[in-house]
Task: inverse folding
């Protein structure tokens, strides 16, 4: 936790980077329309588990407090089910905002190890062959988080194996060098 | 109704949900649709890629859509692939670039085949079978012009046309938890558990789904999700499996032995014990 706080407090230059990153979020001006009705939070399956609800995240970002939003558990609890976006009476794309905040949080290395690993190792696995090979993804994720968690997945692994659903990895011939470069740049 | 489409299978119909891919292709053949797989398609990126960097997700989408022949529509059986490919289509059109139309497999069958053609194909009506239609988040929220994002009914229409009964199901749009199953497994499993509990209470013999992610959460994780709850399991079937069953297609096309939770109750529920 202290490491996280340290990273947040580190530099004002990073903070301005978040802001310029958010300026790339095309709907930023829409956030100011928010009247704090809470329909997004009421529709959210995971808000009860979060420190800040979607309504509070929108408010924080609209008021310029991006740093609190980036530290919130909410942005990675979000399943991107789009219930909030669909129901917002002001047309604010709340779920897209969560995604944008995740991108910034990963770039700024503020995401928790689990949240970072689940997205980074997915993209890494994907870019290797152009397709996802689930066993490899599971192993990469477990090695970065808790290798013992692989034991907890044995039930699923046995079921998949019994049904003949774990085969050899499939590969796409499409050139992904530009996206691999981008992956490195995001860092 | 017949036509040719660029098919984007997505990673999971080649592994975790073989039964969806097999039954979907068989049903399309039977309805006169010609699906040609996009050559060298790449993974759509699902949710984690958009979480990591939205532009990488769009980059993957553009690579896939650029391989589609002019005038052809893209069809995919997976709601997560549908979300990303549809978002790419919308993005390209907003920047005045050419983009093919992206459809979900259910949407294609509903809109381009139509209920009359489907009714005409039914050889063995699914009489006596009660199902809870589970739409999942993405299909109608990405494209609300297709069906209501609050109370969609088009899957109910389909199963009714097949001779089954659609029970009222309040959890039809509730998130299955799939996108967070890697990072927050116990949360995802508890979300699936709530849907399964509601489905069992609805009196349905089975839940019908249209997305491999939803299928994985409700089927592969069902044992874990229903742990400590009363009662037995409930079969999870893809809409294409019910179609193949009602059309009287071969057993290997219906592929009811490939689902994780036993699908026997589906056959048993049908009047006369099914086939």
Result:
């Amino acid at each position: 936790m202290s490491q996280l706080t340290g990273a947040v407090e580190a530099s004002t230059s990073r903070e301005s980077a978040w802001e310029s990153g958010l300026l790339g979020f095309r709907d930023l001006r829409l956030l100011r329309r928010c009247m704090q009705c809470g329909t997004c939070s009421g529709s959210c399956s995971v808000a009860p588990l979060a420190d800040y609800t979607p309504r509070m995240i929108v408010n924080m970002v609209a008021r310029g407090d991006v740093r609190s939003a980036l530290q919130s558990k909410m942005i990675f609890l979000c399943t991107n089910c789009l219930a909030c976006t669909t129901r917002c009476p002001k047309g604010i794309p709340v779920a897209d905002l969560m995604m944008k905040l995740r991108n910034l949080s990963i770039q700024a290395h503020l995401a928790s190890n689990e949240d970072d690993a689940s997205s980074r190792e997915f993209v890494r696995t994907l870019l290797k062959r152009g397709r996802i090979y689930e066993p490899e993804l599971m192993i990469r994720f477990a090695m970065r988080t808790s290798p013992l968690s692989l034991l907890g997945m044995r039930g699923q692994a046995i079921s998949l194996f019994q049904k003949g659903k774990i085969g050899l990895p499939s590969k796409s011939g499409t050139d992904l060098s530009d996206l691999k470069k981008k992956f490195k740049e995001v860092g | 109704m017949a036509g040719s489409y660029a098919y984007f299978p997505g990673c999971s119909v080649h592994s975790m949900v073989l039964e969806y891919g097999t039954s979907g292709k068989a049903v399309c053949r039977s309805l006169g649709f010609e699906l040609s797989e996009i050559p060298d398609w790449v993974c759509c990126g699902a949710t984690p890629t958009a979480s990591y960097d939205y532009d990488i997700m769009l980059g993957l989408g553009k690579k896939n859509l650029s391989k589609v022949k002019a005038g052809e529509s893209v069809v995919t059986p997976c709601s997560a692939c549908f979300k990303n490919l549809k978002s790419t289509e919308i993005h390209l059109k907003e920047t005045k670039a050419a983009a093919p139309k992206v459809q979900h497999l259910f949407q294609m069958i509903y809109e381009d085949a139509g209920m009359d053609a489907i009714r005409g194909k039914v050889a063995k009506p699914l009489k006596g079978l009660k199902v809870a239609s589970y739409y999942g988040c993405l299909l109608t929220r990405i494209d609300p012009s297709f069906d209501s994002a609050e109370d969609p009914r088009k899957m109910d229409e389909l199963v009714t046309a097949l001779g089954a009964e659609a029970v009222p199901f309040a959890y039809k749009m509730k998130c299955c938890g799939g996108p967070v199953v890697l990072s927050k497994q116990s949360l995802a499993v508890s979300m699936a558990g709530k849907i399964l509990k509601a489905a069992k209470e609805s009196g349905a013999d089975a839940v019908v789904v249209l997305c491999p992610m939803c299928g994985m959460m409700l089927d592969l994780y069902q044992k874990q999700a229903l742990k400590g709850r009363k009662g037995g399991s409930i079969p999870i079937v893809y809409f294409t499996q019910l179609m193949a069953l009602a059309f009287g297609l071969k057993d290997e096309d219906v592929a009811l032995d490939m689902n994780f939770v036993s699908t026997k109750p589906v056959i048993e529920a049908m009047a006369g014990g099914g086939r």
Remarks:
- The beta strands of chain B are 3-7, 33-37, 73-76, 102-104, 130-133, 165-166, 206-209, 236-238.
- The first helix of chain B runs from residue 18 to 31.
- Chain B is about 45% helix and 10% strand.
- The domain at 124-273 of chain B is CATH 3.40.50.11810 (Rossmann fold).
